[in-house]
Design brief:
Layout (H helix, E strand, L loop, with lengths): L13 H14 L5 E2 L11 H11 L14 H15 L9 E4 L2 H12 L5 E6 L3 H9 L3 E6 L15 H6 E6 L12 H13 L3 E5 L26 E6 L12 E5 L1 H14 L5 H12 L3 H23 L12 E5 L8 H12 L1 E2 L1 E2 L10 E5 L4 H14 L1
Parallel strand pairs: 1-10, 3-4, 3-5, 5-6, 6-7
Antiparallel strand pairs: 2-8, 7-8, 9-12, 11-12
Length: about 400
């Protein structure tokens, strides 16, 4: 049996690697506390659940859902965006429903890249961004994110020969895994850079609502590209609305980019169950009380977890956004995050994500996901202290 060469680029996956390590630890009798995966332990709101429950009794929702049937959802997404950022959106041509934003970021390279073309990606960054490039036969140029640069890429460092072959740049702020926020001034530079080099600017925006300084909300890419000349932005319901298992997201962007992504999507799938879209509409149209509650919970967990790490002598900065803590490893683990994580879960049952799984520049760090109750998080730090 022969397989496609592209599979060789898809062998390493941080979540799959840790899943095997967790299973091995569990088989030895360890009780697993999973802080490796950013899957919220919080639940969707009753308003969302009620909308989905009501849909289940409507037999008209049980069939295939084609693009036209997503109109109400696309209108709700466009209205939400305009209300939030003050930028008008055409629901007919500038919005596309997705089976989670990961579907969109993974499929978009198929519409933009020819074999051998470059995509400029953040390093460290979310694994599906690179996976989509490899599926399209493209090449990844990693843009290093370093603490001394506030985890922002230095655009001027991208070599001209790479830029001559590049077709897209992918950004994602607030950033997973580093938790960094990019200011609007950086987005304005990025838009100018992409215009200059004829690049599509892709912004993955899952943590649009998960930030802790209400005076400085994270910007949208369209605040720097208000006419949507070169950009597309991806949104998900997994983080703001705790709907990760429902697999619902959407893209807003340049009409030609949306149409191109729609062409790829039409070959791969239809849409998910209409009742899920009805639940998403209910989420978008609701007051933001449930989002504020979610953010308040993550802020309490963040503060408690950071304080506990500081008590055991592990000094880490306090994140301004996301549901993660990005922690530089102490010696002797500073250059072996995978070994640290596999040994930690084997010894204690506490699972965290190795920084190396997010890219070369992630080595020397680990990512903690704040997806457990306060008591469990504090107990996990005590186990980590014993391990260290």
């Amino acid at each position: 049996m022969q397989f496609a060469e592209r599979l060789q680029f898809l062998q390493a996956n941080v979540f799959a690697d840790m899943d095997r390590a967790k299973a091995k630890a569990k088989a030895t009798g360890k009780e697993i506390v999973d802080l490796s995966l950013g899957s919220s332990d919080l639940t969707a709101s009753e308003r969302v659940i009620a909308a989905i429950e009501q849909s289940l009794r409507d037999r008209n929702t049980h069939g295939y859902l084609l693009h036209h049937g997503t109109q109400a959802f696309r209108e709700a997404a466009a209205n939400w965006y305009t209300k939030r950022f003050g930028i008008p959106v055409d629901a007919q041509t500038e919005v596309l429903s997705l089976i989670g934003s990961q579907e969109g970021t993974a499929h978009l390279p198929l519409a933009l890249l020819n074999p051998g073309d470059f995509a400029l990606l953040l390093d460290p960054g979310y694994p599906s961004h690179a996976g989509g490039v490899y599926l399209a036969g493209g090449q990844v140029y990693p843009m290093p994110l370093l603490a001394e640069n506030d985890f922002l890429p230095v655009l001027a460092d991208v070599p001209l020969p790479v830029l001559a072959q590049a077709r897209m740049m992918v950004l994602s702020y607030p950033h997973n895994p580093t938790t960094a926020i990019a200011p609007l001034s950086f987005f304005e530079r990025a838009v100018d850079f992409c215009r200059q080099h004829n690049l599509v600017l892709v912004h993955d925006f899952p943590y649009v609502d998960i930030f802790f300084d209400t005076a400085s909300p994270p910007p949208s890419i369209f605040q720097a590209d208000p006419h949507k000349e070169i950009s597309i932005e991806f949104f998900t319901f997994s983080k703001s609305y705790n709907m990760g298992g429902f697999r619902i997201g959407y893209a807003i962007g340049n009409a030609r980019l949306i149409q191109a992504l729609r062409q790829i999507k039409a070959v791969v799938d239809f849409n998910q169950y209409k009742g899920i879209l009805n639940g998403a509409i209910a989420a978008l149209n609701a007051p933001d009380d449930s989002i504020k509650e979610t953010v308040a919970i993550y802020q309490k967990r963040r503060d408690s977890f950071i304080n506990a790490l500081h008590r055991i002598g592990w000094q880490v900065p306090t994140p301004k956004a996301t549901m993660y803590v990005w922690a530089k490893l102490p010696e002797p683990w500073a250059n072996n995050s995978i070994e640290f994580c596999t040994q930690l879960v084997a010894a204690t049952g506490v699972a965290v994500a190795p920084g190396a799984g997010f890219g070369k520049c992630g080595e020397g760090y680990v990512r903690f996901a704040l997806v457990q109750d306060l008591e469990i998080l504090e107990a996990s730090v005590e186990k980590i202290a014993s391990f260290l």
